[in-house]
Amino acid sequence: MPHIDDESLALNALGEDVLDPEQRAHLDACPTCTRTVRDLARVTARVRPRTPEPELVPPDPTVWARVHAELGLTDVPAVPAPGQVTAGSGPAGAGEAHDAATDELSARRARRSWLPALVAACTALVLGLVGGVLWERRTLEPDETTIASAVLDPLPAWAGSSGEAVLQTTAEGRREIVVSVDAPAPAGTFREVWLLKPDVSGLVSLGVLEGDQGRFDVPEGLDVAAYSVVDVSEEHLDGDPAHSGDSVVRGSFET
Fold first, then answer.
1. Which stretches of sequence are listed as region Disordered (predicted)?
2. Which domains, from first to last, does the chain contain?
3. Backbone phi and psi for residue 224, each to the nearest 5 degrees, phi listed first
């Protein structure tokens, strides 16, 4: 399959589980996507705030009493003013305790007021750095380079079918062939992609085509100039690994 899109890689690096099973399998096997996620995760770890959010605790009862008093709720007894101690209001030092509770509530409110801004700023910074990393990777490591392409024409028994094959090199120097086929798939069969010589000899299987499109690695050392014909066959679940002799589409690479 093609490489995972940048947005999904960035969300994966941020800890979001957005990949489907096929994408996760690709990520496990693809050095390019794996390295991208690793780099983005490293950037994310550096910019995320290391100080945990303050733990919120219930305020002192006198705080709520003062709130009720300020709102004019007569069912709440009056609370002594800061620093004032009245008869029945408590032991000496109650005023200072009230002031301390009020100050703590104000501090908590202040912390809560800037936490959303801090989170938003950190998120923007992370996304900006992620975008920068992706842009740099796109600039320094260009996408796959197309070497040759082939139009896959239908064989007589498969009139109306069509296909295309593109030979590419990746940023790591691997050779890959992207094959797409438009043809009906009867039940109980599957498609297999082959490379063969122009005289229809020396078959080399690249693998099973799942769906309408697939990406296949070219075996190391295989001379694609000699094995220049791409063939997609209709295979049956009979346990025979050989070519069925029933080719759906076929075509030769042209540079």
1. 85-104, 236-255
2. 6-47 (no CATH), 61-135 (no CATH), 145-252 (2.60.40)
3. -70, -25
